[in-house]
């Protein structure tokens, strides 16, 4: 089963993707994580994308399509969760072509609906484990011991460079201008399912599971 998690910044895409990896052995393909990896590697590409990302803009289609192509062609088994990709119509078309080329399909596109006010609270409270990538939140999902990752015990907690008010404004604008048309695009293809992203994390997970089980 291959699915897309679609939604604005802070909708909970990464949180739900990580659960599916644990519970269903699926493969999370987060272009945001891949780009942050490139950024911290200090490569030429990393330096180029960091400037755009930190301000909240979208990286070029060519770069992210290239990253995804590498992962899809290197893993014929599928079971992909596309997290934060596609983000433009061009990326959506490219994904369709890539899946077809590798003999795979797209089983569902899950739109995670949230309201903008909730996103601000989610983004500004978020922190992640710098070692294993587990995602936490100051109010809604704090670590059991302050500053210590529940999953791996690391004390390297980090906050993202783009999780500030100005960058978030730009990220939201980019979402509504360039990514939200994908809702109609996948609806027209008969692939869209919608879940309430404002529900409790477990309830969101149950709604996602329901979509997966009928796909
Ligand atoms: P990316 O890394 O994809 O970030 P994003 O889309 O802004 O999404 P987030 O990671 O911020 O949110 P999320 O939906 O994963 O929420 P999370 O689960 O963490 O992209 C970053 C940047 O990279 C982009 O701005 C762009 O520059 C570039 N980029 C990436 N992909 C690209 C592409 N395809 N094309 C071009 N550029 C690209 O949850 C958020 C918080 O809320 C957490 O603290 C969590 O604990 C909490 N939370 C989650 N669910 C719940 C719940 N149900 N109830 C209460 N709290 C919850
Ligand atoms: Zn950890």
TrEMBL record:
SUPFAM superfamilies: P-loop containing nucleoside triphosphate hydrolases. Residues 126-162 form the Adenylate kinase active site lid domain. Its EC number is 2.7.4.3. Pathway: Purine metabolism; AMP biosynthesis via salvage pathway; AMP from ADP: step 1/1. Gene3D superfamilies: P-loop containing nucleotide triphosphate hydrolases (3.40.50.300). One of its GO terms (molecular function) is zinc ion binding. Pfam families: ADK, ADK_lid. Keywords: ATP-binding, Cytoplasm, Kinase, Metal-binding, Nucleotide biosynthesis, Nucleotide-binding, Transferase, Zinc. It is an enzyme of class 2 (transferase). The keyword Membrane does not apply. It catalyses: AMP + ATP = 2 ADP. Zn(2+) binds at residues 129, 132, 149, 152. GO terms for biological process: AMP salvage. Catalyzes the reversible transfer of the terminal phosphate group between ATP and AMP. Plays an important role in cellular energy homeostasis and in adenine nucleotide metabolism. Belongs to the adenylate kinase family. Consists of three domains, a large central CORE domain and two small peripheral domains, NMPbind and LID, which undergo movements during catalysis. The LID domain closes over the site of phosphoryl transfer upon ATP binding. Assembling and dissambling the active center during each catalytic cycle provides an effective means to prevent ATP hydrolysis. Some bacteria have evolved a zinc-coordinating structure that stabilizes the LID domain. This is Adenylate kinase. It comes from Gemmobacter aquaticus. The lineage of its organism: Bacteria, Pseudomonadati, Pseudomonadota, Alphaproteobacteria, Rhodobacterales.
């Amino acid at each position: 089963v291959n699915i897309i998690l679609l939604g604005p910044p802070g909708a909970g895409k990464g949180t739900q993707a990580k659960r599916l990896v644990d519970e269903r052995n699926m493969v999370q393909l987060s272009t945001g994580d891949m780009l942050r990896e490139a950024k911290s590697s200090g490569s030429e590409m990393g330096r180029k994308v960091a400037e755009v990302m930190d301000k909240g803009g979208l990286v070029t289609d060519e770069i992210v399509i290239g990253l995804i192509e590498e992962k899809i062609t290197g893993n014929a088994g599928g079971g992909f969760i596309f997290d934060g990709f596609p983000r433009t119509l061009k990326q959506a078309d490219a994904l369709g072509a890539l899946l077809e080329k590798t003999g795979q399909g797209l089983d569902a596109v899950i739109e995670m609906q949230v309201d903008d006010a909730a996103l601000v609270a989610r983004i500004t409270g978020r922190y992640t484990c710098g070692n294993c990538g587990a995602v936490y939140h100051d109010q809604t999902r704090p670590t059991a011991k302050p500053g210590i990752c529940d999953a791996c015990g690391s004390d390297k907690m980090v906050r993202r460079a783009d999780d500030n008010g100005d960058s978030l404004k730009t990220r939201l604008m980019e979402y509504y201008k360039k990514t939200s048309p994908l809702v109609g695009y996948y609806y027209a293809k008969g692939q869209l399912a919608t879940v309430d992203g404002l529900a409790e994390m477990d309830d969101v997970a149950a709604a996602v599971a329901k979509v997966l089980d009928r796909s």
